[in-house]
Amino acid sequence: MIAPEKEEEAGCKDETMSPDVPGQTSASIVLSPEELDRLSSERPLVSDFKRMKLEKEAQKNWDLFYKRNTTNFFKDRHWTTREFEELRACRKFESQRLVLLEAGCGVGNCIFPLLEDDLNIFVYACDFSPRAVEFVKKNPLYCPERCCAFQCDLTKDDLRENVPEGSVDVVTLIFVLSAIHPEKMKLALQNISRVLKPEGIVLFRDYGLYDHAMLRFKACSKLRENFYVRQDGTRSYFFSKEILAELFEEAGFQPVANDYVLRETVNKKEGLCVPRVFLQSKFNKTSQLQSS
Ligand SMILES: C[S@@+](CC[C@H](N)C(=O)[O-])C[C@H]1O[C@@H](n2cnc3c(N)ncnc32)[C@H](O)[C@@H]1O
């Protein structure tokens, strides 16, 4: 069954894609003519009815995902502090208490390593799935003095109900925007912008265009361009850096960094080492707080 991808490293270092490599234009990796042909000729086969049902049941499908997998699916993301050194760098003075929002926190694989590593941080963590939020709250490392977890649909519930307006230094969006319908991604970013400080930043990591996970989807799973449904009903979008930059700019952010990261991950079950494409980016808030 195709499930959200685990990121199990094969001991390879991230390799950031240079835009100047011959044959690599805006795309993340070079595909064979056959692969390009297949992708461009594939038309979405999913009916409108099924597409609407998937959107309506998106929350339920993620909640069922956590019912089946509990806290065992994703690995703790220790790379958060290793790779996003901005977390340290964005302090104006050494003893500053950073306020972070992990938007779409799942069961907390990002936040708990961070809370252990950095004692001077307060983390808001929200997720679509009530079950995931319960797992976060039950984690032995969860304590209300340093953490506040709550259930929320980033595309429609105003984050200001739980997080004071303009109070957050850093938002992390890790493999979350890809799970949101492309037409609602901007709403999620605008929502996030309202709780960010004027000079706040968003740290983003997600699936890149032509990632292995995208190439193994069959035509019957295609919902629209670069957007697919897994067998469990959860969905995934694959970002080009141009589309991502445009999306953030429309929501009032400007790119500071925005690059593909190539790495190999091990699928232990299938005994395969596969090439992965992720997009890792950093955006600054540019617009004034929006009151709506
Ligand atoms: C692949 S998981 C990533 C979890 C976590 N960020 C991590 O890195 O382990 C994607 C998460 O996004 C959440 N999600 C999907 N759509 C959402 C929405 N509209 N609002 C809030 N969370 C959402 C899902 O419930 C799921 O927990």
TrEMBL record:
Pfam family, one: Methyltransf_12
Subcellular location(s) of the protein: Cytoplasm; Nucleus
Annotated spans, Disordered: 1-29
Stored Gene3D superfamilies: Vaccinia Virus protein VP39 (3.40.50.150)
Keyword entries, A-Z: Cytoplasm, Methyltransferase, Nucleus, S-adenosyl-L-methionine, Transferase, tRNA processing
Catalyzed chemical reaction(s): cytidine(32) in tRNA(Ser) + S-adenosyl-L-methionine = N(3)-methylcytidine(32) in tRNA(Ser) + S-adenosyl-L-homocysteine + H(+)
EC numbers on record: 2.1.1.-
InterPro entries named among the record's database cross-references: Methyltransf_12 (IPR013217), METTL2/6/8-like (IPR026113), SAM-dependent_MTases_sf (IPR029063)
GO biological process, one term: tRNA methylation
Ranges where the Methyltransferase type domain occurs: 101-201
GO molecular function, one term: tRNA (cytidine-3-)-methyltransferase activity
Domain of life of the organism encoding this protein: Eukaryota
Cellular component per GO, a single term: cytoplasm
Task of the protein: S-adenosyl-L-methionine-dependent methyltransferase that mediates N(3)-methylcytidine modification of residue 32 of the tRNA anticodon loop of tRNA(Ser), including tRNA(Ser)(UGA) and tRNA(Ser)(GCU). Interaction with SARS1/SerRS is required for N(3)-methylcytidine methylation.
Family according to the record: Belongs to the methyltransferase superfamily. METL family.
Subunit structure, as described in the record: Monomer. Interacts with SARS1/SerRS; interaction is mediated via tRNA(Ser) and is required for N(3)-methylcytidine methylation.
Designated name of the protein: tRNA N(3)-cytidine methyltransferase
Provenance organism: Channa argus
Phylogenetic classification of the source organism: Eukaryota, Metazoa, Chordata, Craniata, Vertebrata
